[in-house]
Amino acid sequence: MSESPQHHGQWSSRIAFIIAASGSAIGLGNIWKFPYLLGENGGGAFVLVYIACVIGIGLPIMMAETMIGRRGQRSPIHTMTVLAKEAKATPLWQIAGWLGVLAGFLILSYYSVIAGWSMAYLFKMVGGFMDQVGPEEAQQVFMDLKAAADVQLVWHSLFMALTTAILMKGLTEGIERVTRVMIPSLFLMLLALDVYAATTPGFWEGMTFLFKPDFSKITPDSLLIAMGQAFFSLGLGMGSIMIYGAYLPKNVSIGRSSVIVSIADTAVALMAGIAIFPVVFSNHLPPSMGPGLIFETLPLAFSHMPLGALFGSLFFLLVFFAAITSAIALIEPAIAYLIETFDYSRQKASAIACGVCWFLGLGTLGSFTGGNQWQWHGKTFFELIDFVTADVMLPLGGILIAVFAGWVMKEKVSAAELDLGRYLRYWQIGSRYIAPLAVTLILLKALGLF
């Protein structure tokens, strides 16, 4: 383990951290998952519940994870070891670091396959392959893509190669430079898509669906789904925010930066909804299409609209940008650990971590194409990895982070790191009570125990 707390470098500025952390948080969960969850759970009322969950659950844990990272200034595993020793607590707290590193690594192994779909659809939209398709054809295109192991392998490999190339460049020349370009571009593309949506005949119907609350449609399950989405959307519990916090200069406010990142993440989710639902309603399509919303419904909708090919291409470029900025954050904790533990160069550590991740992704490819008949308790390789990470490792990691920051770390340490002044008490209430209880409910729900 490196003895130097600045072994990996630092962000060049507060803005650099905010942009990179926003890139970590903003991903397929905002653009792919949030719109279809909203569609399945009643629209506007779900938005209000989701925002309340971001404030009450997501924000306290984000501050806690960033604070832990900056205090330790190492990879999550070594950071938790160092801080547990500082707090005179059991070294078993390093389990929280291991959960984050392994969860991010495993998630990227299948995330890259789904990100590859966005690259494939970008190619299809630009090439005119989706022009004037019908509902059955749009569905068949998506089914054919998932059944084609060779095609998916190409896009999965290309996505992982791009991710590796960025990471090999390092913190400033790689991660920071790419996110400085991609995240502002992402917002501009979303804004252009929102303006385009405002010209469609289904715009007001889409806005009513998005923002008119109907609390009769909010069920206990909807509340748990909103809580889970608020937690997962911010990229918490997977080591990404912790490692980005490790690169954060001491003079940067964790509280203000976390608030800005949370606002940016929520804004992207809402802007994605504004872009998507008017297009859906304009084509008289159901808004609750589930995961197929952006890969079946939207290509169909764009193909029948003026300038649809142009804006459809813009949409899938946006999805790709969101995916790759999240991907580099998912694997960075593992790379940092390899550098610290084995004294590897960044290039070697990046190649090893991303190479193993690419290999694991072949199991997900087999799960979609039927080439992998292995199942465990009725779950394919992809379903098992998704369950273990999203339903078990991330919530458990989030609970441990909140409890460690709120109860184990000395109050004078957290007060000095967070610099929240009179607002420290609110953070303590969130990290000590609200967030752990809420994430425990998410975990129990996922395990079928609640």
Walk me through the structure:
The protein has 450 residues and is mainly α. The chain has a single domain, classed as Hydantoin permease. The protein is 76% helix and 0% strand. Helix 3 packs across helix 4, helix 8 runs antiparallel to helix 14 and helix 16 runs antiparallel to helix 18. The longest helix has 35 residues. The protein is globular and about 65 Å long.
Helix proportion range = over 70%
**Annotation field: number of helices:** 18
Counted up, domains total: 1
CATH architecture call: Orthogonal Bundle
Give the H and E element order: HHHHHHHHHHHHHHHHHH
The average pLDDT score comes to 91
Q: How many strands, what sense, and barrel or not for the largest sheet?
A: none
CATH class: Mainly Alpha
- Summing up helix and strand content along with how strands pair, one would put the structural category as mainly alpha
Low-confidence stretches: 1-5
Rg, nearest Å: 21 Å
The rounded distance between the terminal residues' Cα atoms is 41 Å
Strand content: under 5%
Total beta-strand segments: 0
In the CATH hierarchy, the third-tier topology is known as Hydantoin permease
Shape: globular
